[in-house]
Amino acid sequence: MTVLFEKTRWNATAEKMKSGDKEAAGKIFDHFSPLIYRYFMGKTLNRPVSEDLTQDVFLKVIDKIGTFDKKTGNFTAWIWKIAKNRLIDHYREKKSVPLYEFMIEGDEPSAGPETIHKKILAEDISRAVKSLKPEEQEIFSLYYFADLPYKEISRLTEKTEGALRILIHRTNNKLKKILR
């Protein structure tokens, strides 16, 4: 019931945006931008790149909102498809910045041991996630970084919720082994 409500809600909001409603566009941005940003951060571990990619997604949404059809589509799946394609384009363009340039907000290069530990941990996790199969990386990022529920990931990946739970569990176990 909630999933249907969410689909209807975002499809209706997208239709309002399509007709020029700036408030609807703001609601879409306010809801989806933190989720999409976390998704990109999980994939790139680079704040400026993640911010740029998030901005690119919303520029694309603004540019292509006229092509969205609520009768045949789901706005949430549509915007996530744009985000996923933008990430693919980003890697094709090879604009990635090395992970060691990733800075935790407010930290300076002369940061203390706790910050250095966080950066080392981020590098270890990044390497571990990158060693996963692409499908595992995608599911892991959608679940942990974008914080999407299984129902939403199911719609995006066309996998059952049960299959996703099993995949997340196996991926967690695989990452634990890698990180040990």
What does this structure look like?
The structure is a single chain. With 180 residues, this protein is mainly alpha-helical. The protein has one domain (2-179). It is built from 8 helices and no strands. Helix 1 (2-18) crosses helix 2, helix 2 runs antiparallel to helix 3 and helix 2 (22-44) packs across helix 6 (134-145). It is globular and about 55 Å long. The termini are far apart. The model is unreliable at 95-110 (pLDDT under 50).
Biggest β-sheet strands, sense, barrel: none
Counted beta strands: 0
- Rough outline: globular
The helicity comes to over 70%
The proportion of residues in beta strands is under 5%
Cα end-to-end separation: 42 Å
As for the number of domains, it is: 1
- Total number of helical segments? 8
Mean pLDDT over all positions: 82
* SSE class: mainly alpha
Order of H and E elements: HHHHHHHH
Low-confidence runs (pLDDT<50, min 5 residues)?
95-110
What's the oligomerization state? single chain
Specify Rg, calculated over alpha carbons: 18 Å
Short description:
With 180 residues, the protein is mainly α. Helices cover 74% and strands 0% of the residues.
Record keyword descriptors for this entry.
about 75% helix, single chain, mainly alpha
Topology readout:
Blueprint lengths: L1 H17 L3 H23 L2 H18 L10 H19 L19 H18 L3 H12 L4 H8 L3 H19 L1
Helix pairs in contact: 1-2, 2-3, 2-6, 3-4, 6-8
